[in-house]
Amino acid sequence: MAHGWEGAVLRLMRGKDYAFTVIGTEQVTERYRRVHLSDGGLLAAVPPHPTMWVRLWFAREGKPHQRAFTLVDPDPVAGTFALEFALHDGVASDWARTAAPGDTIEATLQGTGFDQPEPAPARLLLIGDPASLPALNSLLDAFPATPATIWFETPHPTDRVLPVRTDADRHDLRLVERIDDGGHLLKQVRAELPAVLGDPETAYIWAACDTATTRALAAYLRREAGVPRRRVHALGYWRATA
């Protein structure tokens, strides 16, 4: 598939193209699907890091469209990883619903990275939802001994059983129903975060929800909660539509 002007821009930015092959699938819930893939040489060329992501290419009405997805359990030795899809209407979900062993998908690696917080976090404060669950889990894996409080927004009742990789001894998982287009999540974080924040200089806050909610969270954390910009990572993972 030709990647159009977006692909041309990514090539200019030294993006690297790969082809992944489906080796298995899992239906985690009715609205969440995991696709296992061989990496086409990706992990041998670029060692994995927390929240590592790639751009997958899909065709819609004959035109190329790219969407970003976080690698799940990347294994450089086996050359495999998984991708997880919060299913909704769209070309990526349509592909995931029908993906079968032997299918291939084109991808570009460009833009991924992770800045290790210094000093190491005394506590993780993570705010996410089904779309950002793979990245959230990768952070829990990367800091296995660090206490964490997780606010996890659940747009649908089945999202409450999604596999958040928590340990009861170190992690406090708070499931938050999606109400008022993310307003309920924002209200709950504002009410509860001061009690668990501790020293803002040693906390690490990671927020990845819909773009508008994430923007509001970032403003609150920096302007009202007094968390230094370098201790906050906030990135909108999707855009809510009317």
Question: Any key phrases for this structure?
Answer:
about 240 residues, Elongation Factor Tu (Ef-tu), domain 3, Rossmann fold, 7-stranded antiparallel beta sheet, 6 helices, globular
Write the layout of secondary structure elements.
Layout (H helix, E strand, L loop, with lengths): L3 H9 L3 E14 L2 E7 L3 H4 L7 E8 L2 E8 L1 E4 L4 E7 L4 H8 L5 E6 L13 E6 L4 H10 L5 E7 L16 E7 L5 H15 L5 E5 L3 H14 L7 E3 L8
Parallel strand pairs: 8-9, 8-11, 9-10, 11-12
Antiparallel strand pairs: 1-2, 1-7, 2-6, 3-4, 3-7, 5-6
Helix pairs in contact: 5-6
What does this protein look like?
It is built from six helices and twelve strands. The model has no long low-confidence stretch (mean pLDDT 93). The longest helix is centred in the C-terminal third of the chain and has 15 residues, at 183-197. The protein is α/β, with parallel strands linked by helices and 242 residues long. The protein folds into two domains: 4-109, Translation factors (Elongation Factor Tu (Ef-tu), domain 3, Beta Barrel); 123-234, 3-Layer(aba) Sandwich (Rossmann fold). The chain is globular.
Compute the CA-based radius of gyration.
18 Å
* Record field, number of beta strands: 12
Helix content: 10-25%
| First and last CA, distance | 32 Å
What is the average of the pLDDT values? 93
Shape: globular
Question: What is the beta-strand fraction?
Answer: 25-35%
Superfamily (CATH H level) name of the largest domain: Nucleotide-binding domain of ferredoxin-NADP reductase (FNR) module
